[in-house]
User: What shape does this take?
Amino acid sequence: MYGFLQHLINGLAAGTIYALVALGYTMVYGVLKLINFAHGDVMMVGVYIGYAVAYLLGREYLGTFTAVALVFLASMTVCALIGLLIERFAYRPLREKPRLTSLITAIGISFALSYGFQLEMAVNLVKAPASPTGVSFAVTSEPVPGAVAAATILPGATTRAFPPIITPRQWLELGTDEKGSVRLFVGSAEHEELPESVIFWNWQAISFAIAAAMMLGLQVLVFKTRFGRAMRAVSFDHRVAALLGIPVDRVIAFTFMLGSALAAAAGLLYAIKDTAVQPLMGTMVGLKAFVAAVIGGIGNVPGALVGALALGLCEEFVVGYTSSSWRDAVAFGFLILVLLAKPEGLFGRAQAEKV
Assistant: This one.
C-alpha cells in the first residue's frame, strides 16, 4: 500500500510538470491551429536562464522566497519575450500559408534553439549553478523504536533532533547536505530510511503548488476575463474576430508569451529533481507534453491537465511495477490506445470538415 502511495505521489508530480508544458501546446493550437514543436526547447531556455540568475544570486540567498521568486520571474519573462519574437518573426508571416509550412518552421526553430545552446556562451550559463537547499517529509506506518532520536544528515549539514518515539502519521522534517544532495538516513546506522514510509520531496510540493496556482489562474483568464473571451473568439475564426474589432495579432502574441512563460516554470520545476541541464533536455519533455495534450484533446485546457496527469501516473506505475526501460514505450503506446478509442482525445470534440 505504501509503495502504491509513493508511486501515486511521484506520478502526480511528474504529471503536473507535463501539464504546464502541455497547456502551451493547447493554447497555441486552440488559437492558431498550429503545433509549436519548439515549445519544449523554449522550456530548456527557461532552465538555462533560471540557473544563470541563481548563480548570480549565489548559494547563500537561494533559500529565501524572494530569491526563488526572482529566479522564476526572470526565467518566465525571458521565455515570454522569446515566445513573442518567435511568433512575430517566424509564425506571423506564415499565418495565411499552408499549415505544413508553419510546422516545418516550428521544427526548424526547435533545432535552432536546442543546438544553438550548445555554444560555449550558453554552456557557461550553467557551468557552476548554485544548488538550492531542499527538505523532504516522511510519514511512517509504524512507531519507530526509541533508539531513533535524531535525523543524521551527511557531513556539512545540521542534525535535527526528534522525540524518542515517532508515532504513526507524524511528519518528520529531514534535510540535505551542503551540496544540496538529498542522501540521508534516519535512526540507527543500519537503517538508511524509515521503514514503510512515503517520501514527499520538497520539489514535489513546490510543483503541486505552483502548477495548481498557474492552472487556476489560466482557467480564470480564459473563461472569466475580457481577454479570455477574445482568445476564444480568435480560436473559432480569427478572420471574423478581426472584423468584430478584436486585435487578433495581440491576442495571438500574448498567447505565445503566456504559453512560453508556463513552459519556463515547468522547466525549472523539472530541473529541481537533479536533472542534467543540457540543450536537448526539452525534446523528450516537449514530446510527452504534446502526447498529454493530444490524449486530453488538444485545444482543451482541462483536457491537457487530465491527459498530463494520466500520462505521469501511467509512466510512474510502469517504472514502479515493471521496468524503467518501458517508460517511453508505454507512454506513446498509451497515446495510440486513446486515439484508437477516441481520435479527438478524451475531452475533444469531433468536427466535420468540408470537402
About this structure: The chain has twelve helices and six strands. Confidence is low (pLDDT under 50) at residues 128-195.
